[in-house]
Amino acid sequence: MCNACKVNVADQDTATEQFAAELLDTLNRATLGLGLAIGHRTGLFDSMAAMNCWASSEEIAAASACNERYVREWLGAMVTGGVVAFDSEATTYFLPPHHAALLTRSAGSNNFARTFQFLAVMAEVETSIVDCFREGGGVPYERFTRFHEVMAEDSDGNVVEGLFTKILPMVDGLAERLEEGIDVMDIGCGSGHAMIALAKRFPNSRFVGRDLCEKPILAARRQADAEGLTNITFEVADVSERMGSDGYDLITAFDVIHDQRDPAAVLEVVQDALRPGGTFLMQDLQASSKLANNIDHALCPFLYMISTMHCMTVSLAQNGMGLGSVWGEELAVQMLGDAGFRDVTVQRLEHDIQNNWYVSMSG
């Protein structure tokens, strides 16, 4: 064997070892992510942050109303994963404040633990997705038992939390018009948290939320009724269908267009439903339409996989185009223009690191 070949083999062995280490780290981090989601759902992170002191597994379990044996095993993962500090002599645990700032409900839009719930949402349909790889087709919305619940929580952070201070100010005079009274439609509204918040703040305006899935619509209706709101309604409807003859002054779509069976048709329906001078406000994932531009994107492995395992497949399940969540800014702007929108602007908000915000006017 020549010397050059020996060098290449050595380099290959080193590269293989490095990749093996990366895979091992990925395995650890992926399973740690499930633990972070459990810490969120059980309230363990919230309890530990509220305690703000070193505590035993028994004390942490009692504060969280959880089974101690499960809590102790979970703490083992959190300690070895670098999330929770451990005093081996006292056998006590502590959630550092700078970690709590990213893992608790009080962190608001900075709560990463909430986002890790999407791992289980994807894993739930893994076998069905494998079948789709071989046979084509898609996995319908109803197979995702927790998607709308998790999405509603996510929306609370990146939409509802900044709705009045960051999102509405993107459109000049919009808050004032809402105060006076306008007609608003939210397509793909899910559990309706954003529309309910708007309806409470602006009683002179009229709001409609529309979604294809009945379960979140029923939840939205229950919440609106509990709030005593009379200026909002929720409909189970295909958002690609016409939205009535009276028209709307504002239509919103929060992280929903890329999931549709025919996104271009939905955008055309939105354009037709807007009154002259009306505004379309669209939130969608921040990425490029070109894979090469996304290689260094901090979130793109996650975005491509959640597209594979939810966004793209729910569209394909309806015999749709399967646009996918990483359709990208370039294609989004083009499709808005093709649908007849004018004055399209793309904005990014500090509290919402994963999305673009598109503001368009009716043509």
What are the main properties of this structure?
363 residues, alpha/beta, Arc Repressor Mutant, subunit A, Rossmann fold, seven-stranded mixed beta sheet, 17 helices, 9 strands, globular
Describe the structure.
This protein has 363 residues and is an alpha/beta fold. It folds into two domains: 102 residues, Winged helix-like DNA-binding domain superfamily/Winged helix DNA-binding domain (Arc Repressor Mutant, subunit A, Orthogonal Bundle); 242 residues, Rossmann fold. The chain contains 17 helices and nine strands. The strands form two sheets. The protein has a seven-stranded mixed beta sheet, with helices on both faces. β1 and β2 form a beta hairpin.
SSE order and pairing:
Layout: H1 3-41, H2 44-51, H3 57-64, H4 68-80, E1 85-87, E2 92-94, H5 97-100, H6 112-115, H7 117-123, H8 126-135, H9 147-158, H10 163-167, H11 174-180, E3 183-187, H12 193-201, E4 206-211, H13 214-226, E5 232-236, E6 248-254, H14 263-273, E7 274-285, H15 291-294, H16 300-316, H17 328-338, E8 342-349, E9 352-361
Radius of gyration: 23 Å
Overall geometry comes to globular
The average pLDDT score comes to 94
CATH class of the largest domain: Alpha Beta
By CATH, the topology of the largest domain is Rossmann fold
Element-by-element helix/strand order: HHHHEEHHHHHHHEHEHEEHEHHHEE
Number of helices: 17
Structural class: alpha/beta
Instruction: Give the N-to-C terminal Cα separation.
Output: 70 Å
- Sheet with most strands: 7 strands, mixed
Proportion of residues in extended strands: 15-25%
**Order of strands in the sheet with the most strands?**
5-4-3-6-7-9-8
CATH homologous superfamily classification of the largest domain: Vaccinia Virus protein VP39
CATH-derived architecture of the largest domain? 3-Layer(aba) Sandwich
Integer count of domains: 2
**Number of strand elements:** 9
Query: What proportion of the residues is helical, as a percent range?
Result: 40-55%
Low-confidence stretches: none
